[in-house]
Amino acid sequence: MAESIFGIHESALKIRTQRGEVLANNLANADTPNFKAQDIDFRKALQAAQGDSDDLKMSGMAKTNSRHLDGGGFSSTSSFLMYRQPTQPSLDGNTVETHVEKAKFMENGLQHTATLEFINGKITGLRGAIRGE
Amino acid sequence: MSMFNVLDISASGMHAQTVRLNTIASNIANADSISSNAEDTYRSKQPVFQTILDNSRGEPRGGVRVKEIVESQAPLQMEFNPNHPMANGDGYIFRPNVNAVEEMANMMSASRTYETNIEVLNTSKQLLLKTIQLGK
Question: What predicted TM-score, i.e. pTM, was given to this entire model?
């Protein structure tokens, strides 16, 4: 039910959250020797989420009764993780370029905010319809 | 996988950088600790970072931790100074292999990375707050 109300934005929000974690991990490991920066291919991950492919199965709550609701839960995007190509590789094998990661993190944050706005707008619209405002 | 995982990741990054700043402070404080033999002389300490992996689930969670703190193998500075109270039988004193310029550059890098982690933490906090307040 909820999935049909929010449409694509529900999946998008989950993937945005996970991409934020991946980018935060890159920035935390900016000084770790041999660490390779990663990123999520958002387009592919979202397509898979929409197509409900096996790559992105919901790992939600366990159902012990056929009438239980689908718990949703966090899906795994680990199959869409890719390594970033560094423009200036460093001597210690670390491929994190802080400025690139910061820009990507900010971009992801803004898109995350946009997704939240879409969902909020949907809720506001529904509430207006329910109250007859 | 928790919604608040990103906060743990940034916190681990800040913790690792704090350890780095501590070793730098120790190195600079001991830059002039003179000794009369090579064994007892202070050697520059450097932390080695390592990624925290969650292999059991294959999830992109992580963070960073200090794997170990190694002592620099750079040669100590021997100085001929027979009048020094710490001089050994041959008249030599030993100075630590701390390079003050290197330590200062290291300190700037550590504080910048610490700041980056704080920024990530702040942005993530705002996004999580907005998510919590959805529909209000």
Answer: 0.82
Query: Identity (one letter) of the amino acid at A29?
Result: N
B3 touches chain A (CB under 8 A): yes
CB contact under 8 A, A98 and B113: yes
Mean pLDDT score, B95-123: 94
Note the pLDDT tens digit of each residue in A45-63. Answer: 888 887 754 444 445 566 7
DSSP string, chain B: --TTHHHHHHHHHHHHHHHHHHHHHHHHHTTT--BSSTTTS---EEEEEEE---TTTT-S---EEEEEEEEP-SPPEEEE-TTSTT--TTSEEEE----HHHHHHHHHHHHHHHHHHHHHHHHHHHHHHHHHTTT-
Which pLDDT tens digit goes with each residue over B25-82? 999 999 999 998 888 899 999 999 998 877 665 554 688 999 999 999 988 989 899 9
CA distance B90 to B83: 11
B38-57 residues touching A, CB cutoff 8 A: 48-51
Q: How far is B35 from chain A (nearest CA, A)?
A: 32
